[in-house]
């Protein structure tokens, strides 16, 4: 039986990845600073611990592990990463997790490690035209990410590759493009656009309106978490280190995305475009490399993925509305 460690296993993608590994017959240890809010924590062993502490990394990284999946990071959507107020914490916390896990993996002789990078590492200058962003893997340099979160991801990609080069740990690196789905953060300030828009629509009165940050012409592509987990597993089982994009190529403007969610809800709502943290003007995954190296790329249509997510977020909104008000 293969043994895996999922760092950040209490989080959104980590929770889904644990389920996938379990369904493949793995024994799974998870570590996270917090438990999974939605009970999506089916690991054989779940350790609550802070990976900024090297002693915690030493405790969870054992020599019997076949694989490590490093997803622990201080992470959020535009409202968290583009305000500037969380920059020091993002860089400090995420780098420490990466350093501690890599060092422990080296000391314990773990053979293979996955690292979750982000499309936020791509240079801003290639993402100014909302209809024509460039995010092919080789366009990463000259580097000019638009956020410190992106710079940290770029540095950490390099960190993982140095441990591969100097210490023989096989690194597998994917650049995620805006992953969403059930059990994803949907309120509280760290939520990304897909969940935020679903929440706003679910909470709106029929005939009312929802707020969308910016002019709504900015573009993104959004990938359902099941496809993300599929891509992680395929990359991990391949001979290709990456970094490689893991995203959808179905680019959409934010206003068109909001219209799609409104249509799914069956409500009659208008859109107010208001000022807010924006990030890059346009972004889309470029899937040439993943297709070439893995013979696979995500293919689930956006609408189908949004329907599933809207249903789940509507349920969360209803549950919250039924909760007794705090004293
Ligand atoms: P998430 O916030 O749900 O998961 C990250 C987990 O890491 C959280 O549960 C958090 O508690 C944990 N964590 C943070 N600091 C920790 C620490 N010091 N010790 C232990 N655990 C700690 O986010 P997610 O969407 O599941 O993202 C997983 C990974 O994928 C992250 O590295 C993120 O940067 C990367 N990523 C995600 C997206 C996306 O759209 N969701 C896009 C690009 C990259
Ligand atoms: N979060 C959010 N909430 N974004 C909104 C909202 C809202 O209510 N309304 C409009 N937007 C707009 C943002 O202004 C931004 O232009 C766009 O939707 C996308 O926002 P996010 O989904 O929050 O973030 P992102 O795509 O800019 O970056 C995210 O994806 C990266 C990977 O592709 C972040 O989550 C990064 O952390 C992640 O690495």
Structure, described:
The protein is α/β, with parallel strands linked by helices and about 325 residues long. The protein has two domains: about 5-180 and about 220-245, NAD(P)-binding Rossmann-like Domain (Rossmann fold, 3-Layer(aba) Sandwich), CATH 3.40.50.720; about 195-220 and about 250-285 and about 300-320, UDP-galactose 4-epimerase, domain 1 (Alpha-Beta Complex). About 40% of the residues lie in helices and about 15% in strands. It has ten helices and 13 strands. Strands 3-2-1-4-5-6-11 form a seven-stranded parallel beta sheet, with helices on both faces. It has a two-stranded parallel sheet with strand order 7-10. Strands 8-13 form a two-stranded parallel sheet. Helix 4 runs parallel beside helix 5 (about 150-165), helix 6 (about 195-205) crosses helix 8 (about 255-265) and helix 8 crosses helix 10 (about 300-320). It starts with a strand and ends in a 5-residue tail after the last helix. The model has no long low-confidence stretch (mean pLDDT about 95). Bound molecules: nicotinamide-adenine-dinucleotide (NAD) and guanosine-5'-diphosphate-alpha-D-mannose. Guanosine-5'-diphosphate-alpha-D-mannose binds near residues 119, 178, 193 and 212. Guanosine-5'-diphosphate-alpha-D-mannose (GDD) binds near residues 120, 212, 218, 254 and 279. Keywords: Decarboxylase, Lyase, NAD. One of its GO terms (cellular component) is cytoplasm. Pfam families: Epimerase (PF01370).
Which strand order do you get reading across the main beta sheet? 3-2-1-4-5-6-11
Q: State the distance separating the first and last CA atoms.
A: 49 Å
pLDDT under 50 segments (min length 5)? none
The biggest beta sheet reads: 7 strands, parallel
Structural class: alpha/beta
Number of alpha- plus pi-helical segments: 10
Keywords: Decarboxylase, Lyase, NAD
GO molecular function: NAD+ binding; UDP-glucuronate decarboxylase activity
Cofactor: NAD(+)
Domain NAD-dependent epimerase/dehydratase: 4-241
């Amino acid at each position: 039986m293969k043994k895996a460690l999922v760092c950040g296993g209490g989080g959104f993608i980590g929770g889904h990845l644990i389920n996938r590994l379990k369904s493949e017959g793995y024994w799974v240890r998870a570590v996270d600073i917090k438990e999974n809010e939605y009970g999506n924590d089916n690991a054989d062993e779940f350790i609550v611990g802070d990976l900024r502490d090297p002693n915690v990394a030493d405790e969870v990284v054992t020599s019997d592990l076949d694989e490590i999946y490093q997803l622990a990071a201080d992470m959020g959507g535009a409202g968290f990463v583009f305000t500037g107020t969380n920059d020091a914490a993002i860089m400090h916390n995420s780098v420490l997790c990466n350093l501690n896990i890599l060092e422990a993996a080296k000391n314990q002789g773990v053979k293979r490690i996955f690292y979750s990078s982000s499309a936020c590492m791509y240079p801003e200058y290639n993402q100014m035209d909302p209809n024509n962003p460039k995010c092919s893997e080789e366009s990463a340099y000259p580097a000019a990410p638009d956020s410190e979160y992106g710079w940290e991801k770029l540095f950490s990609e390099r960190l993982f590759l140095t441990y591969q080069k100097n210490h023989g740990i096989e690194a597998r690196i994917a650049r995620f493009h805006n992953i969403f789905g059930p059990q994803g953060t949907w309120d509280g300030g760290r939520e990304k656009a897909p969940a935020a828009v679903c929440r706003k629509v679910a909470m709106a009165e029929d005939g009312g309106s929802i707020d969308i940050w910016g002019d709504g012409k900015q573009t993104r592509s959004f990938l359902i978490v099941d496809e993300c987990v599929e891509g992680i597993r395929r990359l991990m089982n391949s001979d290709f280190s990456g970094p490689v994009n893991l995203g959808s190529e179905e680019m959409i403007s934010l206003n068109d995305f909001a219209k799609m969610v409104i249509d799914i809800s069956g409500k009659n709502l208008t859109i107010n475009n208001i000022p807010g943290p924006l990030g890059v003007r346009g972004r889309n995954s470029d899937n040439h490399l993943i297709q070439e190296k893995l013979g696979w790329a995500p293919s689930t249509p956006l609408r189908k993925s949004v329907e599933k997510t809207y249903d789940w977020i509507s349920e969360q909104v209803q549950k919250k509305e039924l909760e007794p008000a705090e004293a």
